[in-house]
Each structure stands twice: as structure tokens, then as C-alpha cells.
Design goal:
CATH architecture of the largest domain: Alpha-Beta Complex
Shape: globular
Number of domains: 3
Oligomer: single chain
Largest sheet: 5 strands, mixed
Helix content: 25-40%
Distance between the termini: 44 Å
Number of helices: 17
Structural class: alpha+beta
CATH topology of the largest domain: Enterococcus faecalis V583 fold
Length: 468
């Protein structure tokens, strides 16, 4: 004891920083740890969490859900119109990103995208009438996720729009996503000017048919190997899809050339894809949706199968809790802004593209994409740290998606609501930042965190399902 008292104290401080200041003021060393009790210190919720940790019923369920996720084999099967392939999609239904929301509560970019979808469908011939129709109750709104679909940012899918059709060979289940419009003023950011609608119609008349014809000329395209190769080439297949888009173009062109379509149409489609480094994003999202849908609805599992935002709320779904949404208010992302814009211009975070993080990609795979930090902020070391940090809240690693900078370790995957709340560590998400007004478009990109309240509520609900 006397030897201990003679030494300079070196302390890990779990309390207020002032406690550490007292040690430091006397010449000692103190490291302040940012620790808070799980479940926001609520004793009853803490007991609910304790019932789930090391619970053999939950562990067995998670092993099953994670295995289904790993064994999923998404392939790109074709392109069709949404109304023709999405089962149950009504003639006047518009799908949006994130959890359910009514027209009255929608964020401005989502409202703008709804107006654009109505104009595209020809249900109205001018924006004023389209907005009145949108508010009239004659249009049905539903989350993309309710139809096994996903859409970036506003997430718009209406019956006549072309969609990617992805099939999970392991489960014979299909998922869908719209086609990426490129950058600038686009529907997914709430723009609906004539040039936006003209581009959408060109996508329906030319791009979609060229992609469909090209895919008909070959076997369904295996998506996990393509994404794995893109990770080795510097993508994280969320905010950075440079390699994935190039690989996709390389693989789709031979089928397009064999399709018999006019060369001019094929050239238009190829030029459009080549000019859009984000083109593969929507395919990546549909593939991730397929992998996670395979893991959904495993009773008692605490694995997250959906993270999505609608510009007002952030929502999650959990495998063992069926189709319930657990939501919390969503905030604008922190990040880097294009010249002339700042945080004051930013809309709250929105989009289904967090399905990539939910599947162990995007922010969870930042270690593969050091160049992404120049776009979202930070350093290459931060990218490595983000991936390492996410290993603390996941069920395992996906060895189909390996990371060269981490000795080819698999990406951390299978977000576990128990581990999120026990570690007070929310999932990280790479995201684009939309302007708060409809139609302005993307104004930056950054990194955000899912709100902890979603995971706390889901953990409490699962504890009630699992029992004592």
C-alpha cells in the first residue's frame, strides 16, 4: 500500500470530467472515459436488457438470422415497371423512403418528389394541381420497405417507373429499387422541373429497356462478387460507387450489344451510366435489402434488418419483432458542404440507403474506402476506426466482403440492438445531405449516427417478447 501511495496516480475516470481535473491538478494522470449507463440509466429498461444478454433463446435466433443473411445470394435478374412486378402495388400508390408518414408531415424534399412522381405518371399536368392531388387523399403513400423495395433519399417509386429486380437465389425472394438519376437537380432530392420529368421519361423509355434487354441476353448477374471486388477497388458501395458502377457497365455492355436494340439507344444508356459514379448505388441497395430480408422474421432475434429515414423520423426494424417500426426524430447530418451552403441549409437526414450500413457496408466498410473521407469529412485513420468501432455492435463478420486495409478481414455485420444499447454506441452511416427546400438538390455529404432511442425501444419490446 505504501508503494502505491508513493506512485503518481494514473486513473481511468468514469465520472464527471471534474473528477479527473482533481487528479490532474495534483500532478496525476487521468483519462476521462465517455461512459454512460445503458438504456439511459433506466433501471427497468436495464433489467430488460439483462434478460436478453447471453440469453440462449436469443443467441440461437441470432445465429439463425445471421446465417440466413450470410447465405443470401442476390442476383440482378432484370428491369421492369414497378406496377408490373411489385406485388400489391396499387394504381395510385407512391412508395417513399423511411418509416410510414402522411403527406402533411412529409419533409419538403419528399413532398417535392411526390409532386414530381405525380407529374411523371400523368395524374396531373401542372405542379399546383399535382400538389393539390397529393394532399387530397386520393394518393396512397407507403414505405418502400413495405413492398420489399428501397429508394435513396426521397425514395420515390410510382407504378410506371422502371425498377431493378433482384432475386435471392437462396430464398427465391425478390427485392426492388428504382434507377439512379445521376447528380444535380433530380427527383430524389425533390426536384420536379420539366428537365427532371423529361429525364425520368427517358429512363423509362430508353435506359430501362436497354438494361432489361441486356440482362435477358445473359445469366442473372451475381451481385455479391461484384460488390466484393468494388470494396477491393476503393468503394464502400454507399456514398462511393465509382468502381462498382464501372464494373457494372463492363458487365452489362456485352448483353446490350447482343440485344438487337439500336446502337444509338445503347450508346445513350452507356454514356449515362459512365457519367454517373453513383449509378450502382440503387442496385447495391436492392442487394442489401435481399440479404437482410432473408434474415427477417426470425422469432426472438435481436438483429436489425432495416434502418431508414424519411426526413422526419429515423426508423428501424428488428428480425424478431416482425414488421414493427421503432422510430425517433431524425437530425441533419454533420459533414462537408458544397460552396455556398452550410448546416443551416440542410434537411434532416433521409433515404433508405442506410440499408447498406445495415448489411455491413457503407459506413461499416469505410476502411475499404479511404478516399470517401475527403467527401464526408475526416481522415483515412478515421475510416479505419469507424469500421473497427462497428465490430462492437455486430453479431459477426461477413467474409464475402473483405477489407484489404484490415488484412482482408470481413466487414462487421449483423447489427445487434442489445450491443448497441449496452455499449451506448449507435451505428454510423455515410450519407448525402439534401437541401431543406424541395428541388435544390444535394448540398453536401457527411457522417451521421442512428438515434439511440430506436434501439432502446426495440430492446424493451424484444424483452417483452422473449420473456424472463
Amino acid at each position: 500500500m505504501s508503494t502505491l501511495l508513493d506512485q503518481v496516480p494514473s486513473v481511468l475516470n468514469l465520472g464527471l470530467s471534474a473528477f479527473g481535473d482533481a487528479i490532474r491538478s495534483t500532478g496525476g494522470e487521468a483519462l476521462d472515459l465517455d461512459w454512460r449507463p445503458p438504456m439511459e440509466g433506466d433501471a427497468a429498461l436495464g433489467k430488460a436488457l439483462a434478460r436478453l444478454v447471453n440469453n440462449p433463446v436469443v443467441e440461437s435466433a441470432n445465429a439463425e438470422a445471421f446465417s440466413r443473411y450470410l447465405n443470401s445470394q442476390p442476383v440482378l435478374e432484370g428491369v421492369s415497371t414497378a406496377g408490373a412486378v411489385i406485388e400489391g402495388l396499387g394504381d395510385r400508390t407512391i412508395l417513399h423512403s423511411g418509416p410510414p408518414i402522411t403527406w402533411e408531415r412529409m419533409a419538403a424534399p419528399v413532398k417535392g418528389a411526390v409532386v414530381g412522381a405525380i407529374l411523371y405518371e400523368g395524374w396531373a399536368d401542372d405542379p399546383a394541381y399535382a400538389e393539390a392531388l397529393a394532399a387530397s387523399g386520393e394518393i396512397d403513400y407507403a414505405p418502400c420497405h413495405h413492398y420489399n423495395a428501397v429508394g435513396p433519399m426521397a425514395g420515390m417509386i410510382s407504378p410506371s417507373m422502371p425498377v431493378w429486380v433482384v432475386r435471392d437465389k437462396a430464398n427465391d425472394m425478390k427485392t426492388y429499387s428504382n434507377l439512379n438519376e445521376g447528380l444535380g437537380k433530380v427527383l430524389r432530392y425533390g426536384a420536379y422541373s420539366p428537365d427532371v420529368i423529361d429525364r425520368l421519361r427517358w429512363m423509362g423509355d430508353t435506359l430501362g429497356p436497354v438494361m432489361a434487354a441486356a440482362l435477358e441476353q445473359s445469366e442473372p448477374m451475381e451481385l455479391k462478387p461484384l460488390m466484393a471486388q468494388a470494396l477491393h477497388m476503393g468503394d464502400e458501395v454507399h456514398n462511393r460507387n465509382v468502381a462498382a458502377s464501372a464494373l457494372f457497365l463492363k458487365r452489362i455492355l456485352p448483353g446490350a450489344l447482343r440485344s438487337g436494340l439500336p446502337n444509338e439507344k445503347i450508346a445513350e444508356a452507356a454514356e449515362f451510366i459512365a457519367s454517373n459514379d453513383l449509378f450502382y448505388l440503387n442496385i447495391s441497395m436492392a442487394a442489401c435489402k435481399a440479404m437482410l430480408q432473408a434474415a427477417h422474421n426470425v422469432p426472438n432475434s435481436s438483429m436489425v434488418t432495416v434502418m431508414a429515414r424519411n426526413g422526419v423520423e429515423f426508423g428501424i426494424r428488428v428480425s424478431g419483432l416482425g414488421d414493427q417500426w421503432f422510430t425517433a426524430e431524425v437530425k441533419p447530418a454533420d459533414g462537408l458542404f458544397f460552396p455556398g451552403y452550410s448546416q443551416a441549409d440542410a434537411a434532416p437526414d433521409l433515404g433508405d440507403s442506410a440499408i447498406t450500413e445495415t448489411a455491413g457496408l457503407g459506413g461499416f466498410a469505410m476502411a475499404a474506402a479511404p478516399a470517401i473521407v475527403r467527401f464526408v469529412g475526416g481522415t483515412p485513420a478515421d475510416a479505419l476506426a469507424a469500421t473497427a468501432e462497428m465490430a462492437h455492435i455486430t453479431l459477426g463478420k461477413n467474409t464475402a466482403f473483405t477489407l484489404p486495409s484490415l488484412d482482408f478481414a470481413g466487414t462487421p455485420a449483423g447489427i445487434d440492438i442489445r450491443r448497441v444499447v449496452d455499449n451506448n454506441l449507435a451505428p454510423i452511416i455515410n450519407t448525402g445531405i439534401a437541401h431543406k427546400e424541395a428541388g435544390v438538390g444535394q448540398i453536401g455529404a457527411g457522417i451521421t449516427r442512428a438515434p439511440m432511442a430506436c434501439f432502446i425501444a426495440a430492446t424493451a419490446a424484444l424483452a417483452g417478447e422473449v420473456g424472463g
